[in-house]
Amino acid sequence: MSKRFMSIWFRHLKTDWFTRRQPALKTIPFVLAASDHGRLIVTAVNIPAQSEGIHTGITVADARALVPSLQVLDDQPELPGKLLQGIATYSIRYTPLIAVDPPDGLILDITGCAHLWKGEQIYLTTIANRFKYFGYDTRICIADTIGTAWAIARFAQDKTIVEHEQQTAALLPLPPGALRLEQETIERLEKLGLLTVSYFISMPRTALRRRFGKHILLRLDQALGHEPEAIIPVQPIEPYQERLPCLEPIATATGIEIALQRLLDALCKRLMQEEKGLRIALFKCYRVDGKIEQIDIGTNRPSHNAGHLFKLFENKINTIEPALGIELFTLDAQKVEALSPLQQKMWEQTGGLDNIHLAELLDRIAGKVGADCIHRYVPDEHYWPERSFKKAVSLNEPLQTTWKADRPRPIQLLSKPEPIQVTAPIPDYPPMSFRYKGVLHKIIKADGPERIEQEWWLQEGQHRDYYYVEDEAGQRYWLFRSGHYEAAYQWFIHGFFA
Prior knowledge:
- By secondary structure, the chain is an alpha+beta fold.
- Helices cover 28% and strands 29% of the residues.
- It folds into three domains: 236 residues, Alpha-Beta Plaits, CATH 3.30.70.270; 98 residues, DNA polymerase, Y-family, little finger domain (Dna Ligase, domain 1, 2-Layer Sandwich), CATH 3.30.1490.100; 124 residues, no CATH class.
- The protein is built from 14 helices and 20 strands.
């Protein structure tokens, strides 16, 4: 497929922006001016002022001599860059590859895009009408090369589309400035009588290089398609992205769901073929009014299960406000990881952290309550129970040590043991009763003690003797005595069994 490019020239970019903010200026001659060596110089002219003979570069005093009622507004030098950046971001709905062309243009790589609008002419007209609706005066051209599209948009008023491999014929009648040359080179060409490209395009390249330098040859080759020319998109293209433009704006939840399902099916099919799965996905909705609605999801494990991923998005679809309608949907897999199928064991049940259904369950829970509310803990190399575990970095973090399973441990462990009052015989018999938060618990069953010492390199307290006890209500607790019975000691409650 041959490349196709579009060049958009905003003829009155800054003055059109002022007119959008103040519609009354549309029919009033006005200019933008900036100070230069103590004089006010005209830097931008709107269409009514231009029709009165005012142009950029003259002083405001001379301009007012031509139009006494001329309105003069302060120029904003940083405005064109901000405007072009915003317009380029908006125009991503027409193509994913779009670059800013300072000071007043955009370059779009439209290869493979125009057929979605049933042809280049309808595609171009749609874009031109949209910018006209926003109040911008534009000239647009489509060609095989950036150079030709740029030249025709600015120097050929009667042409908007250059057919395939016809750039040479389109460039011949244009002036040297259409090749994006330096002003000094343009003046030298005109002084020699080379007033159009046709005068020098067939001249020997050595003569052109000797008289005008290498740059003129480069620009000729770029415009004719002999030398490639790349653009830097305002937004880098995600390696895994799917797009779905709409012929008519979508404004219903059902339409959004259908669009999302189609994008997920296409993306997951591609990921499956490459044995990969997504971890983070971003769904963007480009509205007619220029605003972008977006929702994102994350998974604990790489996944290309379209049904599961749709359920994760489904909870957030109601946050999308379509307003007047959405004309483009995109789905970006912002983080992708390798996904090799796990080998299943014939005679053993699969489960635990390798169970894909567990990972999908955690994804759905995270989508509702937030990923920060889900934690996994792994054993740590410490004796004291409150130090014997730590938060895992991820769901897949391997265990560095095993859980202590030779003695029972409570389901709920207090982060900090709480002191209690205990009645117990001496010297090492289990407690008979204890009082916790004002409630007396009579113990009918007990087991212990289990002595747990602190690490030798930590000297933060005495040893602990733990007891597993059950009260007359059937509730079970984990209690311990800190220190020897005959010395200074204290009882604590540390956990609760189910």
